[in-house]
């Protein structure tokens, strides 16, 4: 599903954010990515979402070397990936419900049953009272949960989520993790970047531990992978 072979990455001529990183995420697996602020978690997820190319080494996604992909290939692959990045990218002129429905509408699905399903999901993430709210009227944490619902609604092959529990209390964080586990049970490969050692310990999924590229010179990134 996702394979990194001796991947290094730097922005321009800057320091190495990731250095000589290798792992293989099997289809249907669930991994956490952990590491201190600045260790490269977001950059790693962005590589998986085809925003960057590695400076060295090889990243393969769905069995394809990302350096070889055309723009059209990338668009097609991205349709199979659900993402929650830290800038939620919601459409401000659509309600929470409409934002989450959008990926399904793009797939030609719509109607009352779809709206009911979306409303149920939004209620599960604690937004049952805000179905018809527009993103600018929601808090950061609420907007993030709309983005999470939008990322999971279409049951993507791969889900990438960057600090998805960063803005919520412990109870909601657990609910969101249960949601990701349900999705994973239905076959989605899940990759969650988190600062929270508590969540990592509680859920017992394998962890890719980033120590930071150059900041960890001489100390290769520790990782467990399945
Ligand atoms: N667009 C960019 N251009 C240049 N350097 C960048 C860019 N984005 C991130 N960096 C640098 O890359 C390093 C890793 O950043 P990244 O955001 O991937 O880490 P992170 O582990 O996700 O951090 P955080 O937990 O604070 O979000 C940092 O030193 C950061 O300053």
Architecture blueprint of SSEs:
Elements (H helix, E strand, L loop, with lengths): L1 E9 L5 E10 L4 E5 L6 H8 L7 E6 L2 E2 L5 H8 L2 E4 L11 H11 L5 H13 L15 H13 L5 E5 L7 H16 L3 E5 L3 H7 L3 E3 L17
Parallel strand pairs: 3-8, 3-9, 6-7, 7-8
Antiparallel strand pairs: 1-2, 1-4, 4-5
Helix pairs in contact: 3-4, 3-5
The structure holds adenosine-5'-triphosphate.
The site of adenosine-5'-triphosphate has 11 residues, from helix 1.
Main location: membrane
Subcellular location: Cell inner membrane; Cell membrane
Keywords: ATP-binding, Cell cycle, Cell division, Cell membrane, Membrane, Nucleotide-binding, Transport
Q: What would you note in describing this structure?
A:
It is a single chain. The protein contains 7 helices and 9 strands, in the order E-E-E-H-E-E-H-E-H-H-H-E-H-E-H-E. It has 226 residues and is an alpha/beta fold. The protein folds into 2 domains: 1-80 and 157-226, P-loop containing nucleotide triphosphate hydrolases (Rossmann fold, 3-Layer(aba) Sandwich); 91-155, no CATH class. The strands form 2 sheets. The protein has a 5-stranded parallel sheet, with helices on both faces. Strands 2-1-4-5 form a 4-stranded antiparallel sheet, with helices on one face. Helix 6 links the parallel strand 7 (158-162) and strand 8. Bound molecules: adenosine-5'-triphosphate. Adenosine-5'-triphosphate binds at residues 11, 14, 17, 35, 37-43.
